[in-house]
Write a structure and sequence with these properties.
alpha/beta, Rossmann fold, 7-stranded parallel β-sheet, 8 helices, 43% helix, 16% strand, globular
């Protein structure tokens, strides 16, 4: 049994990952926003902690407590993030800062602390972060400038983690899903062809394999999960 830390566990992808790792027999540690509880029932107990992941001091304090309580973090899924449309001519500095706060700061504050713990562990660890297609494809970024810029930092962070962690068996991976088939996305795009979208459960299964003992030989830092889109 491994300790699996999941931020954003209350969302659609978070729920799918929580269920997948419980199914695999692991212990899930859910890190939620202040005052939040898991909005669904789970088939096994989940350890729930609350932190404002955009607040560095609060995040570090809570992750410290998680390490104290559970000794190790074997896998960390850093799923918290946000999205915004906006072309170059209507994206201001405030929007860029907002997207960086939601997508990069939340990942960095949690991830850096978890990474420093993992390099002290005999078996190392696995960190999974969420990238985005617009951060890889300039044509897709033109209508999502702040979002693309903030997500581009995730790929560089994974590269840094992998360089530092290569001798301690700490591997960082960035998953890059296309549109995820969630209730919120269906409401936002009611006329879209959802058949091409990726199911949260499909992503969760890929993440579970990539972070498993069977997937230990994987060293590719980017996993594109585009489905049929």
């Amino acid at each position: 049994m491994k300790n699996i830390l999941i931020t954003g566990a209350g969302g659609a992808l978070g729920k799918a990952c929580v269920m997948e790792f419980i199914k695999k027999g692991h212990h899930v540690i859910a890190l939620l926003s202040p005052g939040k509880k898991l909005p669904y029932e789970t088939p096994a107990p989940v350890s729930v902690y609350n932190a404002d992941l955009m607040n560095e001091d609060n995040t570090l304090k809570v992750v410290d407590q998680i390490i104290t309580d559970h000794t190790s973090i074997d896998v960390a899924l850093l799923l918290v993030g946000g999205f915004a449309m906006g072309s170059l001519d209507n994206t201001d500095g405030a929007m860029i800062k907002k997207m960086i706060g939601l997508n990069f700061d939340t990942t960095y504050y949690t991830g850096s602390k978890v990474f420093n713990q993992m390099i002290t562990q005999p078996n190392g660890g696995r960190i999974v972060m969420v990238g985005a297609k617009p951060a890889l494809e300039p044509i897709a970024a033109t209508s999502k400038v702040a979002y693309a810029l903030s997500k581009s930092l995730i790929f560089k962070l994974a590269e840094i983690f992998n360089e530092i962690g290569k001798d301690n068996n700490v591997v960082s991976t960035v998953i890059v899903p296309s549109i995820i088939n969630t209730e919120d996305n269906r409401k936002a795009m009611p006329k879209a062809d959802t058949a091409a979208w990726v199911q949260p459960e499909e992503i969760a299964a890929i993440v579970a394999f990539a972070t498993s003992d069977q997937g230990a030989t994987l060293r590719e830092p980017i996993i594109k999960i585009y489905g049929k889109s």
